Amino acid sequence: MAQKTDVPLDVREACVRAARDFIAEHGVEQLSLREISRRLGVSHQAPYKHYPSRDHLLAEVMRRCFRDFAERLDERERHDDPRDDLRSLGSRYLSYAAGHPVEYRLMFGTPWPESADAVGLVRDAVHAFDVLRGVLRRLHGTDAGAQTRVDLDAMYIWANMHGLASILQSNVKDHLDLAPGVVAQFEMHTMHMLSLALDGAARQSAP
Question: What is the model's pTM?
């Protein structure tokens, strides 16, 4: 039987913390409101007063992850040059992924519950993406014609950062017989190649 924990007066908040701990230990598939109530030492019905279903609780946990992620991106070192700001943003992205692997997998590796809209998950997830789009608008402008370019570059950068973060967290990279120093230089090299790609595309599209 799971050990009961001290329950704060705010059961709603306690449920979120207990759910994050449970997911870290057992994975998202085993999450249930019954298990959360057992962990908190409250009645089985207590969590339902705040979360109508297990998916509502999961959606709230995921929303918090996106909110914290966006705050971490917003706290980056700012630069006047948008290209430098993109590098700073990339470093923050990778730092969050490395320091919060459970939360990172929840955000980008877990199907969204049907209750995502109800708790504001979509809003907070879009805000995190808009941090990246905001920097790219400084690079490409804000007119209607630039929006497609901003979105394409945002998806391109995100795909590269997500791939880089996933590889850095994988075990297989440690068995590839890579040249000395490759792993340590991987992040900087990827950032450099991204900058070259963006600059090259900008020159091609220039009138």
Answer: 0.83
DSSP state letter for 160: H
Domain chopping of the chain, boundaries: 52-205
Residue-wise pLDDT for 57-86, tens only, equals: 999 999 999 999 999 999 999 999 988 999
CATH superfamily of this structure's domain 52-205? Tetracycline Repressor, domain 2 (1.10.357.10)
Is there a contact between 95 and 85 (Cβ–Cβ < 8 Å)?
A: no
Residue 27, sorted as left (phi over 0), alpha (psi -120 to 50) or beta, turns out to be left
CB 11 within 8 A of CB 46: yes
The per-residue b/e assignment along 102-138, b for 16 or more CB within 10 angstroms, e otherwise, is ebbbbbbebeebebbeebebeebbebbbebbebbbbe
Instruction: Decide: residue 10, CB within 10 A, 0-12 exposed, 13-18 middle, 19+ buried.
Output: exposed
Q: Is the pLDDT of residue 132 over 50?
A: yes
